Amino acid sequence: MFERHYSVWPKGVPKHVTIPETSLYENLVISARRYPRKPAILYYDTPISYGEVHESAEALAGYLQHLGINKGDRVLLYMQNSPQFIIAYYGILRADAIVVPVNPMNRVAELEYLVEDTGARVVICGQELFDNLAPLLERGKLAHAIVAAYGDYVRTPTDLELPAEVAAPRRPLSVKGVTSWHEALAAGHCPAPHTATPEDFAVIPYSSGTTGHPKGCIHTHRSVMATTVFNAAWIPAPADSSTLGTLPLFHVTGMQGTMNTVIFNGAAVVQMTRWNRRVAAELIQRHKITSWTAITTMVVDLLADPEIHRYDLSSLVRIAGGGAAMPKAVAEKLQQLVGLPYLEGYGLTETMAPTHMNPPDAPKSQCLGIPIMNTDARVIDLDSGAELGPNEVGEIIVHGPQVFQGYWNRPKETASAFIELEGKRFFRTGDIGYYDEQGYFFIVDRLKRMINAAGFKVWPTEVESMMYAHPAIQEACVISAPHPRRGETVKALVVLRPDAKASEEEIIAWCRERMAAYKVPEKIEFVETLPKSPTGKLQWRLLQEREWQKASS
Q1: Are 521 and 463 in contact (CB under 8 A)?
Q2: What is the CATH number of domain 374-446?
Q3: Domain formed by 27-34+49-196, architecture
Q4: Which one of 7, 103, 233, 234 has the minimum C-beta count within 10 Å?
Q5: Which band of pLDDT confidence, cut at 50, 70 and 90, is reported for residue 536?
Q6: Res. 210 pLDDT band, cuts 50 70 90
Q7: Strand, coil or helix: what is 291?
Q8: Which residues pair with 429 in a beta bridge?
Q9: C-alpha angle 268/353/91, rounded to 5°?
Q10: What's the Cα-to-Cα distance from 292 to each of 114, 243, 287, rounded to whole Å?
Q11: Where do the structural domains in the chain lie, given as residue ranges?
Q12: Rounded Cα gap, residues 498 and 459, in angstroms
């Protein structure tokens, strides 16, 4: 067991936490029983009580079972941040089904892949996303959709600027197989008894894969519960605390940090559907928010507001995040503004968010932190697999109850994702790093071919596979390029077919129609050939190195 970090372990935090032997859904039941009238969600000034969230989740579960959803069935959850997302998440769990959270930026082709891969027949979606699902309903790929209008939950008059999706009125949809959110809740179907155990599958978030398609990461109620209670123990938050919800709930960091941990604590999330720096600052000031989990780009944008000093942000006691390293200069500006360090952490979709967090009283900048409770982390040699010592660079591996069961329908990739060490099954993160003498971990590179665009993970092979459908493209190689705000962005080197014509603007527009916005190449460079190895493999690493060398010079 790795214990080097115990010398900097946070005071008062246990090194081992007992994980509850209940399903994740029971956390909502318990908090609703304790605090039935207390707000669980504040949505643009409208309070939504724990009692209402619980009753709505029960009603939704009854309707899902009415549609034929049985234990272990997968249900797609395709929404932006909203009260309906939280209710739907727990409603699916209440029905003993499995949540498949979907990036709301996904489009038809990406959705079709998820439907086919999971075998899902029912989707719960926001009305602004319905048009992306309509073709799948028409072709019989999906059997039913429950469609929600976010604005239905803005019931208190507010002077806050609402996103267009929230301000939009409920859209009537007279389409076969489609039920509105309010009709589903009002149907009055009572669910059968909840039977899920800690070992049952709860959530399958998708992590982009190196083979061109995303991979579903199988998480049980126990593995999701693990980081829920770890978060709660690392920095205790009483029931009267509040969290600003700005990170996407479909992603494990937002899912755990601003939803599941909040509900476990009986606290409140002040939920935003879209990022808006002025609204965020006003919400912190107005509702005396105590905690904010944010990515680097949000912090940069907040600090760039010339009016930020007009807002009282003194209620904040914790600002944390991960996904991409926080530049030291930005962290220093943030600390000058609010008097708090930015606490960086580390985790993956495969680990349901954190395996490492910085000690609140001894954080290091641009650092993953130290292994958290119940978690063993090591660094191994890339070639031999032998364990390495302090300051020796290798692959980071982790073992703990938050590690996933494996990839959905991918036994070979599951087998290759793990390694055994000292009788334990460790997950191979694919991240290259080291730990220092005190046991703090740092990343220096990535073993896997991935682009980290402001915290959004982009796998080049997936983007390339979609670009090859363009009639003018003969070959494409996707790499990362430096970006002043996002850290890195997506660039594509393209070889056109003989006699074909296409402009950079045309290809980017074509991509924007077919893939999530963060995957769309920001830059297109036309080349005559792409370098290949003697065996015919594309030498993407060579192109990658050239791009960054060109930028640095």
Answers
A1: yes
A2: 2.30.38.10
A3: 3-Layer(aba) Sandwich (3.40)
A4: 7
A5: low
A6: very low
A7: strand
A8: none
A9: 50
A10: 31, 6, 13
A11: 27-34+49-196, 374-446, 451-552
A12: 28
